[in-house]
Amino acid sequence: MNQTIETMLNHRSVRKFKDETLTPEQIQLIVEAAQMASTSSFIQAYSIIGVTDPDKKKKLAELAGGQDYVSESGHFFVFCADLYRHSLIGKWEQADVDDSITSTEKFMVSVIDASLAAQNAAVAAESLGLGICYIGGLRNNLPEVSELLETPEHVIPLFGLTVGVPDQETAVKPRMPFQSIYHENSYRHQEDIVKEEMDEYNKAISAYYHERTSGKRSDKWTEQMANMLQRKNRMYMKEFVEGKNFAKK
Question: In sequence order, what are the residues at sequence separation of 6 or more whose Cβ sits closer than 8 angstroms to the Cβ of residue 234?
Fold first, then answer.
């Protein structure tokens, strides 16, 4: 055990922030930490947009589904899959890169690169005593988000990250048991084993919600997932991604 691991194990989403903006030094540290994440073949296929304009933050909060803490956070980072630079490199270096950068593989690389960078940023922010919350709700309205952030072809905003000084205390939400996540040498797929593990996890999650809401809520994780997965959500995504010249091959 060390301080870095303690920070990671104590992660919780923060949705209420004090009215304090991040300093330029904090922003630079967080971005520099993000940049040191691993990147496939050194391609660095992502960009980070820091949103400081109050009107833009408010609009993004609306587009993300009315999540006010987007506009109330100390800083809002938007992580983007980005192969725009690489398309220009093809022109500058007189190389035919179109088939590669429009492939599904490079789309996956850019999404993975951005996600790794974001998690580095999250851990860095929390190590500074700041709170964070990922905002996947930006994908509810990506055409509008892209227009607002002026992202060109080959750039897709994937999710946001609110960062700020926490103004609330929240408990750590229980994750799945170790044995449910970690498989050794082969995937443990027997349904009876999975069911037993999920039943145990449901008890932990129900107890967490019951305590957090003073008995007003005690739903199970499997119930939560079933309700969520029944809803058709963001079904425009394939068309949008291809329209940005990603994952066409």
Answer: 139, 140
Q: Which residues contact 157 (CB under 8 A, 6 or more apart)?
A: 49, 78, 79, 80, 138, 139, 142, 145, 146, 149, 151
Give Cα separations from 221 to 173, 178, 179 (angstroms). Answer: 12, 16, 17
What is the rounded distance in angstroms from the CA atom of residue 165 to the CA atom of residue 18?
6
pLDDT at res. 206: 96
The pLDDT of 176-183, averaged and rounded, is: 95
Do the Cβ atoms of 164 and 14 come closer than 8 Å?
A: yes
Looking at residue 85, its amino acid is R
Q: Angle, nearest 10°, between helix axes 104-127 and 24-35?
A: 140
Of 53, 235, 29, 43, the closest CA to residue 130 belongs to: 29
